[in-house]
Each structure stands twice: as structure tokens, then as C-alpha cells.
Amino acid sequence: MAASLPQSLYRSDQVKRGERKIASDLGVEMYDLMERAGLAAFCLLRQRWPEAKKILITCGSGNNGGDGYVVGRLALEAGLQVVLWSASDPETLTGEARTAKQAFLAQSGVILSADLPSEPFDLIVDALFGTGLSRAVEGHYRDAIKVINASGSPVLAIDIPSGLHADTGSVFGDAINADCTISFVALKQGLFTGKAADHCGHIVFDGLGIHEAFEAHIPTSVTLLGVNLLKDFQPVRRRSAHKGQCGRLLCIGGQQGMGGAIILCGQAALRTGAGLVALLTDKTHINAILASQPELMIRQWQKEDGAQALSSVIHWADVLALGPGLGQSVWARALFEAALASQLPVVVDADALSLLSHFPHNYDHWVLTPHPGEAARLLDLTVEEIERDRFSAVKEIHNRYGGVVVLKGAGTIVYDGTYCSVIHAGNPGMASGGMGDVLTGVIASCLAQTQSVKEAARFGTLLHSYAADIAAQHGERGLLASDLLPLLGNNIE
């Protein structure tokens, strides 16, 4: 088994077609792949739960169920007590799954097909549905998932937790809550975003001996970005660098009473390495800014100052961060319109996204950072519709508004018009006020240093989640956005 996860992610149809082609090219029988999958799952079972003696294996009618029969046979050979329950008539099995079933029976295995046993088990193996599931789970399948989730037993899911959409990470009514999921041949993109975080547990990968050939011949436009890639993405700074070469960033926002958002944004930009950072905000926040972060410069503008004065303030900068605490007032709209008219690279968040949904623009040199609620407003959809297919949502936002889109949430997706990157970092402690303001500052700072919206969005989003994971090492509950600030500038090894 691979010690770390591959970077390439695929749709289920790509894996289904690709594994057959690659196996054929390599002269590997499909039943041999099923045997390898079952063995990999059984070895993980023994490694992770070495004390487990009594195991329930739940099998469906497809090849995922066939993997379960292989696990059952190997468990019997190892002397474990195995209860195998089939959710469908085992006599209807065909192909490799039927062969695996016959081998299980030959090992004196017994198949139950009445009610799912409710007795206690040391471990449950989920082999009900594979990656081909495309409709809501119903009937006794859904009942079985509910019983398994309520059992209190640890669960190992084979290839994907049953009920989870392999392409989107959404749930078909109900899904298994696995403690661990082992995925084969190639990683499925739905394992790493949306509701998948609630169901997959720890994800383990085994390429079954064909992964390298698969990845070499089956192209993908979706990648998994883990913290191991941070050092490669980090902007390079020469030893002779001075602040003028590290970017001038103007953070625009903070209407009266919302100063905290723009201060966090500016602080995050400083900590991430921007050379000069100024805040264009309401004058009532001046004392708070000077007291909390004297390195931040302050700019002011009122409507009576006129458009030329505002343009002069904005064009001091190389890059803009627009939106934290901006509000929806006449003042806010004037700043919004002036920022967009400047044609400077800009990171757009929070209230500026709400304004954008009312006054649409399409621009190549910006990064949009919506959470699902803001994404719903941008596309005139519901949050549920956004979360049902986050990959489609992030692409549609790009199609309408351009630039690079960062769709926040569990498994944040960054889309640049060609490639999707899924952030494999972050934790539930980030569900607190101010985290988005910090992210805006981080990405804008990276943009000021690189002048690349694509690089800044990927690196900034990954760095933000990485810092949150470090900050949460002593606990996720009560994690504050400001807790990330001292960690953003740490050397990345």
C-alpha cells in the first residue's frame, strides 16, 4: 500500500473504463484485480484492527460486493469469525463477483440474506455499493446503512463509503460513516470534498499494481493538493529583496463597525510576506488598527472626496483585496466599482461577492473566494444545489465571472478555467468568523508577490489550511482566525 496519496483524482467513469484498458494492456485478469483488492483490504483490516475477531461483511450485487467476498474468504482462512450478509440475492451475481462468491463458499463460508444481523461485531466491512452508484439509496439497502451507522462498530469501507457519490462527494440519501476507506487503482475525486469529510474517515490508497500505468495513460484535470507540495508552491524571495519588490497591497473594506474583518485581512497579508500593506477603511477604525498592527498603513476616502481621489488611493497598489467587512452601502458600492475599474489584480470576498452577484463582471485577473452561500448567490441557486456538485458549481462560477475561483468548504476547490485543485488540508475548527478574511489576505499577499492569480490561489489556500491544522493541534473547538497569523510566515520544510 502506498504510504501517501497520489496527486491525481478521477471521475468514476474514468476509473471504470481505464482500469479495464490498463489491466488488458498489462495482461492482468479482472478477477486477479479483485483478488488484489480483497487482499489489500484484508491486510489493512489486520493492520488497523489487529484485535478484531468477529467481523461482519456486508456485500452488494456488483464487483464491490465481490471484493467483500474475497475479504471474507481471507478472513476465514485466517481463523476469524465471519458473518457475511448479502443485500441482494447472491444467486444473481455474475462475472468476477460470482467467482469470488464461489471461492468464499468453498472455504465453508455462509451467506445470510435475511435481516442484517444486529449482534455486536468487532468490525464491519462495507462492500455494499461501489463507485457506480447513481441514484438514491432506498429500501433494505438504506435500512442496512442506518443499522451499520448506529451499531457503534468501526467500519472499513471498500473503495468508497456506500451511499457517497464518487464524483461529487454528495450523499444519496444516506451513506456509511466509515472509520477508514481504502480506494483502489485511482483516487475518486468525490472522496475529498463536500460531505465526503463526514463519511470517509482515514483514506488509504492501493494501486493494485496498475496505478502507475493508469496514471500515465489516463489524463485528468483534477489534482489533490497536500501539504507536501507547499514548499514547491512557495514564492521565492531573493536574498537581496527589498519591500518594494514584494508587492504593495491595498485591502478595501471595513465599514463602520466591521473593522475586525479588514484588520485580519491586512495582518494575514503582512504575515504572508507582502512588502507593503495598507487598509482603505472607515476612519473610526484608525485607533484599533494602530493599536493592533502598527505595520499596517491607513487610507481613507469619503464620497465627497470625489472619484479622482479614490482612483489615486487605489492606484498606489499593485494588488487589491476587496470585501472583508465592506458592507452594501453607497460607500461600499463606490469602492467596489472603483476597484473593478482599476483593472488591477484583485481578490474578491465577502460583501464584494454579494455586490458582484448584483452587478456581474467578468475579469481574468481576479480570485473569487465564495463560501457555498456566496456561491449560491453568484449562481442564483440554493446552497443545497451548490453542495450537490461542488465541481460543477466552481466551474460555472468561472464561466460566468472569469478569473480563478476558490469554492470554500470541506475540501476547498480551486479552479482556474482548466484545472481543478482540491485542498487536502484544513479542519472543522475553521468554521469560525474571520477565517475567510484571513484567507483573502493570504491569497492577496501571494498575488502581490507572484503576480499570478493561479499560483496565488493554490498556494494561498493550501497555506491557509495548513496553518489552521497546525493551530488546531491542541484542539479544533475554539480555534480563532487570529490563531493562524503567527503560523503563516513559518518556514515550510
TrEMBL record:
Q: Which InterPro entries match?
A: Carbohydrate_kinase_pred_CS, CARKD, Nnr, Ribokinase-like, YjeF_N_dom, YjeF_N_dom_sf
Q: Which reaction does it catalyse?
A: (6S)-NADPHX + ADP = AMP + phosphate + NADPH + H(+); (6R)-NADHX = (6S)-NADHX; (6S)-NADHX + ADP = AMP + phosphate + NADH + H(+); (6R)-NADPHX = (6S)-NADPHX
The species this protein belongs to is Enterovibrio gelatinilyticus
Required cofactor(s) = Mg(2+); K(+)
For whether the record's keyword set contains Translocase, the answer is no
Q: What does this protein do?
A: Catalyzes the epimerization of the S- and R-forms of NAD(P)HX, a damaged form of NAD(P)H that is a result of enzymatic or heat-dependent hydration. This is a prerequisite for the S-specific NAD(P)H-hydrate dehydratase to allow the repair of both epimers of NAD(P)HX. Bifunctional enzyme that catalyzes the epimerization of the S- and R-forms of NAD(P)HX and the dehydration of the S-form of NAD(P)HX at the expense of ADP, which is converted to AMP. This allows the repair of both epimers of NAD(P)HX, a damaged form of NAD(P)H that is a result of enzymatic or heat-dependent hydration.
What note does UniProt attach to the cofactor annotation? Binds 1 potassium ion per subunit.
Specify which residues bind K(+) according to the UniProt entry for this protein.
N64, D126, S162
Outline the extent of the YjeF N-terminal domain: 15-216
* Family (UniProt): In the C-terminal section; belongs to the NnrD/CARKD family. Belongs to the NnrD/CARKD family.
What residues bind (6S)-NADPHX, as annotated? 63-67, 130-136, 141, 159, 261, 325, 371, 437
Listed binding positions for AMP are K408, G409, A410, G411, T412, G436
- Per the database record, which ranges form the YjeF C-terminal domain? 226-493
Indicate the quaternary assembly.
Homotetramer.
Q: Could you identify this protein by its name?
A: Bifunctional NAD(P)H-hydrate repair enzyme
* Record's keyword terms, sorted: ATP-binding, Isomerase, Lyase, Metal-binding, Multifunctional enzyme, NAD, NADP, Nucleotide-binding, Potassium
Q: Which PROSITE patterns match?
A: YJEF_C_2 (PS01050), YJEF_C_3 (PS51383), YJEF_N (PS51385)
The primary gene name is: nnrD
